[in-house]
Amino acid sequence: MVLIAISVALYITSCSNNNQEPNEEKTTVTVNPEDVVKHGEYLVTIIGCNDCHSPKKMGANGPEIIPELMLSGYPSDRPIVKFDNKMIKEGFAMFYPDLTATAGPWGVSFAGNLTPDETGIGNWTEEHFKKAIKQGKYKGLDGGRMLLPPMPWYNFTSLKDDDVHAIFMYLKSIKPVENIVPAPVTPDKM
Q1: What is the DSSP track for 42-64?
Q2: Element (DSSP H or E) covering residue 107
Q3: Is pLDDT at 104 greater than 90 in this prediction?
């Protein structure tokens, strides 16, 4: 019993010593901007942004990203196909062959331009980007519409701010591509 009382007394004494200065100096971690961009590129790759946001052509192993159009979204010079499909009315979705557009019960949605051109995210702040990717806000603007399927923004709600920052910095570092992505098509106009 005496041993327990001594242990408790020592514990209380050590916990009440919060006013003492630590002997260790605080260290500052310097982050290399190139490392941040490389981390952003890694995240864009593993998250699968290119799957929908990069136009593709058929190659020997299936769809291949068109390098000069990487992350530029649905090509504005491509005709928009009319959809009138019984399966869509039953809740199914259909993708364009390169996955840059999708038709479903919500209408037709087009993958956005993620390049730093003004027709993409060139005028966006990091806060806009964060709201878009973590809250599903179109162009990161409050009061506007939500991002449409198949954009899986809800999968990114728990991304760390450092990761969002890295993705944004990577996207700001890539080649800008001028491409005005079409507005979504509502179900009644499909």
Answers
A1: HHHHHHTHHHHHS-EEEETTEEE
A2: strand 107-110
A3: yes
Q: Which DSSP symbol is given to 137?
A: B
Beta bridge partners of 62: 59
- Per-residue pLDDT tens for 42-68? 999 999 999 999 999 999 988 999 999
Nearest to 67 by CA among 78, 55, 80: 55
Q: Both tokens of residue 153?
A: 């923004």
For residue 96, CA distances in Å to 55, 86, 132 come to 10, 17, 23
| Spatial CA neighbour of 154 closest among 128, 142, 138, 136 | 136
* β-bridge pairing 62-65 and 56-59: antiparallel
* Whole-angstrom Cα Rg for the chain: 24
Distance of CA 40 to the CA centre of its chain: 10
Residue 102 zone, left/alpha/beta (φ > 0; ψ -120 to 50; rest):
beta
Q: Are 109 and 101 in contact (CB under 8 A)?
A: yes
138-184 pLDDT tens trace: 999 999 899 999 999 999 999 999 999 999 999 999 999 999 999 99
Q: Nearest Cα to 69, choosing from 111, 130, 132?
A: 111
User: SS3 of 120, please?
Assistant: coil
Locate tokens 């509502």: which residue?
Answer: 186
